[in-house]
Predict the structure.
Amino acid sequence: MALEKTGAHQLTLPFKGIVDYSINSYAVGQGNDHILQAVSAEDASAGFFIQGPKGCGKSHLGHVLAHRFQGQYLPIHRLKEIDVADDFFGQKSMIIDDFHEVADVHEELLFHLFNAIRRHQKTFFALSQVNLEHLSLKTPDLISRLKLLNALSFSAPDENLLAQILVKRFSDNEMTIDAAVVEYLMQRLPRDYSMIQRFCSDCMQEALQYKKKITIPFVSKVYQQKFNQQ
């Protein structure tokens, strides 16, 4: 995504106050484009187990998948709210987010849900911070069924994806960020989704608390405090 600059080199961002989960706002780059290509393949009906660290955009991807595959997006802690028989009417897929929190869900419910998905020939997507082998599962039949899913993982973001992530983080929180600031941070931030998310959160908290603009001197100060580097 090219960074659009105004005459003052400032990015123009929408002031929404809520996270934008639309398809057009989903950041795509070297860290996740292989996932989009895989789920669009002809053999996608087998379903997918998609792993990625906190901050990589799994929830946004889940909403994109729900739109793309005419499905239902649901965080795993809300599984108890659905009726397997009724909630599949008209849905072609099921996207379960926060699958790493599976220990808080009754495995029998998840087992019946997965069987219903297979029986009705729906496409199933599980989004998790950890790989399947690191989940706290005890039901052998459920584990064996989950192993049938295609396994995908996010990789480290390239500069293009990192720039998009930075812009979106601030945009979702109703803040503007100068293109020069984005370039400055791209040269310094580690290619780590979780650390990028925490850094952006720290910047926004400091900016709100002290009523500061997101400038290079400001982010440089936050960066030095967080990473203890020049």
Remarks:
- The chain has eight helices and five strands.
- The mean pLDDT is 86.
